[in-house]
Specification:
By secondary structure, the protein is α+β, with helices and mostly antiparallel strands. About 40% of the residues lie in helices and about 15% in strands.
């Protein structure tokens, strides 16, 4: 499905969808959050944004260009968080998802 969309949109013509400059800017401005399944701390991406920008841009462009999403990006840890002080039923919890950090921008 993705491959069809990418071919029709012209993205597969080797033009990068994510460029190093924009990616570095997004990495530098990432908000501090809990580590995802990869256990990488958020400060790593903001402090090393320049060094990581081209690598992560390559991974994104490869993923978009080939219509393949790495399996790690499809997984998350869901933690039930109580909505009230003493929850008595499942409806009194909300799910909080901690996904892989490579979901840049979030």
């Amino acid at each position: 499905m993705w491959k069809y969309f990418l071919e029709k949109s012209g993205i597969c013509n080797n033009d990068p969808l994510v460029d190093d400059y924009t990616n570095e800017h997004l990495l530098r401005r990432m908000t501090p959050t809990s580590p995802g399944l990869d256990a990488l701390p958020s400060w790593l991406f903001s402090k090393c944004s320049y060094e990581l920008a081209s690598i992560i841009a390559y991974i994104f462009n490869y993923s978009f260009g080939n219509g393949v999403v790495p399996e790690q990006w499809k997984r998350s840890v869901i933690t039930p968080v109580p909505k009230v002080s003493r929850p008595m039923s499942i409806s009194q919890f909300r799910p909080i998802s901690v996904a892989s950090r490579r979901e840049i921008g979030g």
